[in-house]
Design a protein that fits this description.
284 residues, homodimer, 11 strands, 4-stranded mixed sheet, alpha+beta
Chain lengths: 284, 284
């Protein structure tokens, strides 16, 4: 950062030999959170969504810009929001280099810039027929954390303070052939990856990694549904060619994060159905 | 642009030897525009605000990301908005590389990325005592264009379709010692430049370039007030050291844009008053 907040724009120096990765995400009251939501969670989530996008590209996050629209200048709210945002930013070495505040209905837009070595970015479109499909962590927990009822503190935490897979994404460079982050639900997002690669995903539901908390809260059948369609997991779903599967365990050791093989991508059996978005439900 | 809209993030390759310039700006209904505002104007203005920030840094704009929150998917509105945004983007070679749409109260956040040669960025803080102060164009027109009454079509155009000084900003590299764009009003913004440089601005109101349209609409006294405090002009206010003033006319010929010398920056006569923000009203 050559010049941060305080001039007309931020002035940044990307490292030589790198490509720039840029994403923008918005949280809107009534859509992504309810009125009265914990501002510390909102600050965390606003950045986590974008960190997850960069993780899915295998990028290292560097700089964030925040466009914050607020109904009123509430110092307590702002302090908690800044704490949630700032703690996560610090954990990943992200500098807040620009911002804009305006008065209006609550709206939080975060732009995040990061870098990858030239040619090393993970795309959705790189999978080849026969590649294995993996997912990090235990999808479905965040969706369960949003449901009313006897959800555990752990499930609520997964929903309110999701952990983006920043380190895992970078570790997958040179290993994964394609990668996407799970924001809309595992089935939909895997479908997008398969479609972008011109393939069809074959997912084995029995292999889905379901957390004990999710199983206790939702039972086995609903747990599978939540894992497939819940959304906002911010896990990574990625493909690995057969020749690179031996290197996967070394690149992503269990202490970094849990990964589970859940299926394969294959040549489409027929014309790709746009509605199904490349996802062949429950075929294995 | 290596990879635009459609993956988890955009993948961009900055030119070697350049620094990255980043800014974010928001337009909010009820604050920056009224309900029912012309969507083509909103698309134009949303990008113009950020283009003006980059112009003030002497940067060339490259890539935009758009976070658009809309109450409903109105195809007619969206087409007009995209036309206003797209026409201005095309004129300045800006590629829209990322976007996010959400449902909610109308909110438009634009992130713009650009580049400057290493070390060439114009900052607010580079002015030295004795530098001359200049402004491009005719400030105050946009503010008059927002007022009710018999404003001319030209004044309305200045308000609804402001022309950011993108080429002028780049031409000022190596000439201007400091630069800021006029978004909050010439007096306030010149004051920010002077303060950032540890100086005091001395502005000569009789030198202010007032357009004939502004004078006809507002009369001489109100015209000066609007030129000083109107805001949203998106002109550039900059300082030039005595030794470089000969080069200014060649760098910014009249056919590129009108420039007018309106005062100087000087060593502060006393402690800088934070409330006055470095601006010594009407002292000459």
């Amino acid at each position: 950062v050559l010049l941060g907040i305080g001039d007309d724009a931020a002035l940044l120096r990307p490292a030589p030999g790198t490509e720039l990765v840029a994403t923008v995400d918005t949280l809107v009251e009534g859509r992504h959170f309810l009125a009265g939501a914990d501002p510390r969670s909102l600050g965390h989530r606003a950045l986590a969504v974008s960190l997850s996008d960069l993780a899915a590209m295998g990028a290292a996050p560097c700089w964030a810009l925040l466009a914050l629209t607020l109904p009123e200048a509430d110092a307590t709210w702002l302090a908690a929001f800044a704490r949630g945002f700032g703690e996560l930013a610090q954990r990943h070495g992200v500098a807040l280099v620009g911002g804009n505040t305006a008065r209006g209905p609550l709206n939080i837009a975060v732009q995040l810039l990061g870098s990858v070595p030239q040619g090393a970015a993970l795309r959705r479109s790189g999978a080849r027929a026969g590649d294995a499909v993996y997912v990090t962590g235990t999808p479905g927990d965040a969706a369960a954390g949003r449901e009313p009822g006897q959800r555990s503190a752990a499930l609520r935490e997964r929903c309110e303070f999701p952990v983006p897979r920043v380190t895992a994404g970078q570790a997958l460079r040179g290993i994964a052939s394609a990668c996407i982050d799970v924001s809309d639900g595992l089935a939909a997002d895997l479908g997008k990856l398969a479609t972008a690669s011109g393939l069809e995903a074959r997912l084995q539901p029995l292999l889905l990694p379901l957390s004990e908390d999710l199983l206790a809260f939702a039972g086995p059948q609903r747990a599978v549904e939540l894992a497939l369609s819940g959304g906002e997991d911010y896990e990574l779903c990625f493909t690995v060619p057969p020749a690179r599967q031996a290197g996967l365990a070394a690149a992503l050791p269990p202490e970094l994060c849990r990964i589970t093989r859940i299926g394969t991508v294959e040549t489409a059996s027929g014309p790709l159905d746009a509605a199904a978005e490349g996802f062949d439900h429950f075929r294995s």
